[in-house]
Amino acid sequence: MNPKIKIQNLDNSKVKIEIEFQSSEFDSLMDKGLQELSKDMEVQGFRKGKAPIEIVQKAIGEQKLIEYATQEAVNYGYITAIKENKLEIIGSPEIKIEKCAKGNPFIFSIEVFVLPKIELPDYKKIAKEVKKNKIEIDDKEIQDSLKWLQGSMAQPISKTGAAQEGDWVEVAFSINDNPETKDAFILGKGKLIPEIENNIKGMQEKETKEFEFKFPGKEEQAKCKITLTGLKGIKLPEIDDEFAKTVGNFSSIKELEENVKKDLLKGKEVQEEQRVVGEVLAKLGEKLKHIQIPQVLVEAEIEQTMQDFKARLAQNSDISFEEYLKQSNQTQEKMIETLRPKTEIKVREYLILKEIQKAEDIQVGEEEINQETNQIMQKYPDLKEVDLRNLVEYTKERLENQKTYQKIASFVEG
C-alpha cells in the first residue's frame, strides 16, 4: 500500500496529517477482512471455515468489513506517516474519518501534538561561559554529619519532669477544627513549626495545653490544642572508635571521618553538576525563547506538580488542601496560573536537554536498564505490582538524562 500523506503544521506544536488510500487499496483491505473474519465463522450446514465466500460475506455484512478495513488503514497510515516524516508524537491522536465507502478512496485526518524542531545554537561554546565552583569540605561539615549519625543511634531513657530541648516527645494535637494528629520526635529539631515546639518545652507528661500561634508568613491566628502523651530523655553514644565500628565496617573514627568526607564530596559534586548544567540549559533557553512549547506537556507537568504538592501537604501538614488555599487566600486556578511561567521554562529546558541527547547520540544499553531496574525492584519489593514496562521506560529515561547531564557538565570548564 502506498497512501498519500500530507502534513500541515498547526499552532502550538500540533500537526494535521491527511492520509488518503486509493479505492483499490481500501477494497483490498475489505477483502483481507473477509478472509480473516471467515476463518472462525460457523455457517449452518458447512464445516468451520469451509462455507462459500459469498455466503460468509452476506453473514458478516458489509459494515463489519468496512470497520475492519478502516481500522487497518488508520493504523497503517498513521505509522507510515510517523516513520516517513520522522515525527516525535506527544499524547494521543485525534482521528477524523473524512470519506469511507466501498469503491471510493478512503480519506482520514489526524491531529496530534509533536515535539518541536529545535535548531540548537553552539551549546558547547555556551557551556564554556559557565564556570564550575571549587568544591571543598570543611571539618564542621564532617562533624555535623557525625552528630547526625549520633542522633540516629540515640537511645530513649526514662525521664521525669518538664520537657526540654533534646528530649524525645510524643504528642497528640489538633489545629483549629482539623482532626487530631499524633507524632513523635526529638524536641528542638524542627519537626513542627518553632512556635508549637516552643510551647511543648516546659510541659509535663500527660499535660494538655491550648494556645494561639501564627503559621510562618501568615497574619491569621490559629488555635492549637496539644497533649504531651509521652516523654523520654535521650542517651547519645560517644563518637569514638567503638561508635565507628557500630555505624559500619570501620576500624576507627578516623576511617569513618574519611568515609563521611568522601560521601559529602560526592554529594557536592552532584549538586555542582546539576547547578552548572542548569545554568547552561537556562542560557540555551533564553536563546530559544521563540520555540513553541507543546501545551500538552505544560499541562501534564502542572498536573503532576499539583499532585506532588497535595501529597506532600497530606504527609507533612495537618491541614487539607482546601484549608491551605483558604489560608493562602487563593484558588486552585490561581495557583495553577502562578505555576505556568516556571513550568513553561522547565519544559523548554527539558526539550533542549533531549535535543542535546540526540545531537550527542547518547544511548542506554539494555543491560544497563535491566541492572538498574533489578536494583530498584530489590530496594523496593512492593514495586512488583507496578507495570514492568512503565518501570523500564522510567529507568531508561532517567539514565539517558543522567548521561546527558554528565556530557553537558564535561563541556564546562573549571
Key phrases:
single chain, 414 residues, alpha+beta, 5-stranded antiparallel β-sheet, 13 helices
What does this structure look like?
51% of the residues lie in helices and 18% in strands. Strands 5, 6, 7, 8 and 9 form a five-stranded antiparallel β-sheet that branches. The chain has a four-stranded antiparallel β-sheet with strand order 1-2-4-3. It has 13 helices and nine strands.
Q: Please, what is the average pLDDT?
A: 90
Give the helix proportion (percent range): 40-55%
**Low-confidence segments, ≥5 residues, pLDDT <50?**
none
* Intertermini distance: 57 Å
Shape: elongated
What gyration radius follows from the Cα positions, in whole Å?
A: 32 Å
Order of helices and strands: EEHHHEEHHEEEHEEHHHHHHH
Could you give a short account of the major beta sheet? 5 strands, antiparallel
Oligomer: single chain
- Decide which structural class fits the backbone: alpha+beta
Number of helices: 13
SS strand fraction:
15-25%
Strand runs, count = 9
Short description:
It contains 13 helices and nine strands.
How do the strands and helices of this protein lay out in sequence?
Blueprint: E1 4-9, E2 14-21, H1 23-38, H2 53-60, H3 62-85, E3 89-99, E4 106-114, H4 123-127, H5 139-152, E5 155-158, E6 168-175, E7 181-186, H6 194-200, E8 208-214, E9 221-235, H7 241-247, H8 253-287, H9 295-316, H10 321-327, H11 332-359, H12 366-379, H13 388-410
Antiparallel strand pairs: 1-2, 2-4, 3-4, 5-9, 6-7, 6-9, 8-9
Helix pairs in contact: 1-3, 5-8, 7-8, 8-11, 8-13, 9-11, 11-13, 12-13
